[in-house]
Structure formats: C-alpha cells, structure tokens
C-alpha cells in the first residue's frame, strides 16, 4: 500500500484529518524562512496530538546538530528529513547521532539529477525525490512545483524512496501510475492558503491515493 506523508502541519485539525484519513506520517517544518516553521513549543504541543501509528518527521534545511537535537527531543521525532545541501556524510552523521530515521530530499529537474540519489543508498532510510525549485525561489521545497515524473519510471535508487512536489488530489493518481512510488509526500497541495492546511483537501488527497 502506498504510504502517505502530510508535510508542514501546523494545527491539530490537520493532524486529526491526517489521522482519520490514515496517513502514515506527518511532517513538522523547522526552517525559519518557511511560513510552516514551528517553534519548539509549538512542535511539542502538536506532537502530543499525533496518535500512535503516525510517525513524526522533522524537516530541516542544512541545520546543525544543536537545532536538530532540540527538535528531536521537543517533538519526539521518529525521523529527520534533510532538505538542504546535506551530503551523504552529513546524513550518516545525523543518523548515528540521533538514532532516528533519516530521509534525504533530492531535488530533481532532469535525468542527471537522479544520480545524486544513489550516493545516499545504504545511508538514508528513504530518499525523497522532490522538484527542484527555480533559482531565487523563496524555499527549497513546499512550493507546489512538480517535475517530469516520467524520469522516475523504472529508476531504482537502491533505497526506499518517495515522491514529492506539486502533488494534490487531482494529480496524485497520475503520479502513482507513472512512477509506482511507494510513498507520496504533499504540502501545498493540501492547503487553502500558504501554510494553512485544509482538512478537506487532506482527506481528498488520501482518498485519491487509496483509490489507486
Ligand atoms: O514546506 C516548507 O515550507 C519547506 C521549506 C523548506 C524546505 C522544504 C519544505 N517543504 C518540503 C515539503 O513539504 C515536501 O517535502 C515537498 O517539497 C512537497 O511540497 P509541495 O510541492 O508543496 O507539496
């Protein structure tokens, strides 16, 4: 069954919607430039609202150990998603130090970008293929940008993986048919406005995935 991650949750209604729609993961963003950024206190409060059976993944962009450690403890994170320029050595170091799952986001625009993913095989617990945002973009992810999913057809990164970038309830079926992704990750596609999750869109997204 395709796994689902709802990224960038900021309130209990989004967590409840994700839980009732049987999402597998919720993502907490720890990146001050993001409209989805959470303080440690906010994250700790939200973590308490996540039912067992849903894993909490913290998203970081080139963060240091101090920042990651504080968030892992405050939000009792099950995993860390590295969404910046972290190389394989940094991914390995985060895994060894914090003992949580490590996901590495790999930005994709062309076929050549896929090769980068293999550097994380055997190190990252999951590789997340996300669209490369345009130069000068406000954020390196979470912007509803998609890439050509056909690039992933038949590609084996050598590790568990997932697909992100520009997914929503109306596109995820085609994305899954094209890529056979074992996990899909969505943020802006289940929002009403930037950073504000829609429980109805979360439910519709999960239903579209499960309908496959
Ligand atoms: O969500 C953010 O604000 C964010 C900030 C910095 C790096 C990554 C960020 N989000 C990543 C995601 O939420 C997802 O992994 C992915 O990019 C999908 O986003 P979307 O295209 O909006 O569905």
UniProtKB/TrEMBL annotation:
Q: Pfam families from the entry?
A: PRAI
EC number(s): the record gives: 5.3.1.24
Q: Which InterPro entries match?
A: Aldolase_TIM, PRAI_dom, RibuloseP-bd_barrel, TrpF_fam
Q: What class of enzyme is it?
A: isomerase
- What keywords are annotated for this sequence in UniProt? Amino-acid biosynthesis, Aromatic amino acid biosynthesis, Isomerase, Tryptophan biosynthesis
Q: What one GO molecular function would you report for this record?
A: phosphoribosylanthranilate isomerase activity
Show the catalytic activity: N-(5-phospho-beta-D-ribosyl)anthranilate = 1-(2-carboxyphenylamino)-1-deoxy-D-ribulose 5-phosphate
Any GO BP: L-tryptophan biosynthetic process
* Pathway(s) of this molecule: Amino-acid biosynthesis; L-tryptophan biosynthesis; L-tryptophan from chorismate: step 3/5
What top-level branch of life does the organism fall under?
A: Bacteria
Q: Where is the N-(5'phosphoribosyl) anthranilate isomerase (PRAI) domain?
A: 4-207
* Similarity annotation: Belongs to the TrpF family.
Q: What is this protein called?
A: N-(5'-phosphoribosyl)anthranilate isomerase
